[in-house]
Amino acid sequence: MQLRIAAVLCTLLLSPLVALAADPGPAAPGPAEVVQAFNRAITGRDLAAAASHMAKGSVQYTLRSAHAGVGTGAGITSDLATHWNTIGPVVLSATSAYKRVPEISNTRIDGDLATVWTKTNSETVDRSGKSKQATFSELYLLVKTASGWQIGAIADNRGTSPLPGAPGAAPAR
To answer: Residues 55, 149: contact at Cβ < 8 Å?
Structure first.
């Protein structure tokens, strides 16, 4: 009888520990979730949070300038953190809203590398209230690090648009 009571007590005491061991908790964000979080941070005007999703040494591939009349420089690549630390403050100070919404079209994971293809819709609202929408594809290359998935590179096929005051741009109205 005492042995049976001891067994029941042990079962009652140990079952929460067994349940904890069996439940590893929430899974770490996958590559697609990291891409979504990065874009939410940009939309939320939080460049530090966006940078937290970038791997050390990450790269921006700029195929063409986003704005007509603005060159891309000698190369098509730049450090991703430098890219966003340069254009981020300009975009955020010149706009009352900058929204980026990536629709994930394909995710592939191969070991510690992953690719995430998106169709990204953006909306820029300048300080005067004028709104502009753009849609383009982006390819994110992610690497699995000790702290989880991080963005190693971004490339997009964004086209050019007139930049007010740039050569060939239509006069502001």
So the answer is: no
